[in-house]
Amino acid sequence: MSNPTNRSVYFTSRSWILSLGYTSSLVYKRRASTKLSKSKSQQTSRVLNSEGMHIASRMTSSSTSPTSLIFTLLVFLVLPSVCLSADSDPLQDFCVADLGAAAVNVNGFPCKPASSVTSEDFFFDGLMKEGNTENIVGSNVTAGNVLSFPGVNTLGISMNRVDIAPGGINPPHTHPRATESGVVIQGRVLVGFVTTGNVFYSKVLTVGQMFVIPRGLVHFQLNIGEEKAHLVTAFNSQNPGVVAVSVNLFASRPSIPNDVLTKAFQVDDNVVNGIKSRLG
Asked: Where are the beta strands (DSSP E) in 165-241?
């Protein structure tokens, strides 16, 4: 029969060894679990990165797809349709142009101080008077834009009065910053314009009839009646600008070289010089 003391020591040692083994097993399992977690995390990260790169690649490739291009074109076509005028929207009730502020250079005109604005700034009688048509083209345009009517500054509108003698013409010209609409007040007028596709549209108009000229297109008004013609035109810009084709080409300062004009119009120097002398 063995010694009880030895048996106690044996069981105590055995328990300690088992406990140590269990503890070591737990540590090992935790380390293994940590390594497995890190491994899964790294794999997940690699998968996500791979998926991200795949998605980015798909997005990059789709950005040049026909559908994406069509969508982009639609955005560019639809967004401008919300604009009601060719000029920027006003940021206040009014901004009467201070035409005397020559030292200030902005896209438009600076505002007069509100304290110096009067009722007269919002009224204009310039279109009441018949224009002088005794000139080589037999017409006269009285402008009601920001340069003569400062009250329209920033409002995106202006109007003109056009007077044309019998047989006279408001020569071919363009308005680079505005679409034009108009109505015949008196007379019989041939109104026409040419598109960028070189298509000519025209019609003879009488009193009360309207017309519209798309922005930037070359157009004219010719009085084909036996009496004076009178039209009122309107623009969606405070300063639509005007490019008179014949004057710009043959009466510019300095002059366009004759070589350019003779080749462009397929005529000789004598013809070019003759036109320049009449328009200059």
From this structure: 169-174, 180-186, 189-194, 200-205, 210-213, 218-223, 229-235
